[in-house]
Amino acid sequence: MKLTIPEHYNPVLSVRQTQEAIKYIRDTFQHEFGKEMNLLRISAPLFVEKRSGLNDDLNGIEEPVHFTMKDIGDERIEVVHSLAKWKRMALKKYGFQLHEGLYTNMNAIRKDEELDNLHSAYVDQWDWEKILTKEERTENVLKQHVRTIFKVIKHMEHEVWYKYPEAVNHLPDKIHFITTQELLDKYPTYTAKERENAITKELGCVFIMKIGDKLSNGEKHDGRAPDYDDWQLNGDILFWYEPLQCALEISSMGIRVDENSLVEQLRKEGKEERLQLPFHRAILEQRLPYTIGGGIGQSRLCMLLLKKAHIGEVQASIWPEDMIEECYKNNIQIL
């Protein structure tokens, strides 16, 4: 069990007040986010067919929860890890146009997650996707979208301060950009997680770019599936989180693979057999739009803005009994 207990922790809000604040944050953020990014809210699946190739492989080692259905035969159905690929198909299917996009409330089960203050087996996030031109697949366009998301989060800080001034967490005024290679050059003796913590503590909020490919030391900064984000045009938004003395990832996002980067990244991972799956064929044959997209953690955003010590204070999930007992001893109100 990995559990951090902040010294003299005070949750400030009662459980009921926290529930009210959670609803307010979620309702307000998705409205503002959709408006700023030109996104339409749509419905999304909880599970997909394995043969579709639409599920997110995360780091490639997590096994999805799966089952069969009485009326579908022996076809394996998988609970989604995320909707990274499905959203791109949906933009095409539903007739979205250039610079239009979608967002959805995505719920997932990640049964292999290592549980701690920030990680739960239950995942809730706003998954979003937006259509670009091929020429807009650039670092500048990526940064523009990152700054927009940061602006909406900062706006939410002010909204929460107005309603819950005693509980709000004050955020930095600027987001900084750094690549994984620049991060390694800056902290050559640190592990990847130590590098993230060091740069985020120094700058307050960072977007760490280019995640998935090997660095000059022959290692990856972190794993990324090879068939949705372009590893040269992606990244994570991290905030320094004082209560836990660590970096808190709020969003993973990026410009999606095109027909060339898809083949290159699958080859590097030895996963070329995926090129025969329907989703991958559609990219190769340029039948899907070029897009940018990502996920924004709903519970993590609530946790960040309300200065909570454990993600279990803002979502209902399952935790080890010893973790629950330790939390209650230290005034951490697990739902």
In brief:
This protein is of the alpha+beta class and 335 residues long. Helices cover 33% and strands 21% of the residues. The chain is built from 9 helices and 11 strands.
Morphology: globular
| Count of individual beta strands | 11
Strand order, biggest sheet? 1-5-6-11-10-9-8-7
Report the uncertain regions.
none
Radius of gyration: 20 Å
Number of domains as seen in the coordinates: 1
Helix amount, in percent? 25-40%
From the helix content, strand content and strand pairing, which structural class follows?
Answer: alpha+beta
Assign the CATH architecture. 2-Layer Sandwich
Beta-strand content bin: 15-25%
List the total number of helices.
Answer: 9
CATH homologous superfamily assignment: Bira Bifunctional Protein, Domain 2
Measured between the Cα atoms of the first and last residue, the distance is 18 Å
Enzyme class: ligase
Keywords: Amino-acid biosynthesis, Asparagine biosynthesis, ATP-binding, Cytoplasm, Ligase, Nucleotide-binding
Pathway: Amino-acid biosynthesis; L-asparagine biosynthesis; L-asparagine from L-aspartate (ammonia route): step 1/1
GO molecular function, one term: ATP binding
Fold and architecture overview:
This protein is an alpha+beta fold and 335 residues long. The longest helix is centred in the middle third of the chain and has 25 residues, at 139-163. The two termini are 18 Å apart. The chain has helices spanning 15-37, 86-93, 139-163, 180-186, 192-203, 259-269, 278-284, 298-306, 321-329, and strands spanning 39-41, 47-49, 66-67, 77-79, 101-109, 122-132, 176-179, 205-209, 229-241, 246-256, 290-297. The chain has one domain (15-172, 250-329): BirA Bifunctional Protein, domain 2 (2-Layer Sandwich). It is 33% helix and 21% strand. It is globular, with a radius of gyration of 20 Å. The strands form two sheets. An eight-stranded mixed beta sheet has the order 1-5-6-11-10-9-8-7, with helices on both faces. Strands 2-4-3 form a three-stranded antiparallel beta sheet, with no helix packed on it. α1 crosses α8. It contains nine helices and eleven strands.
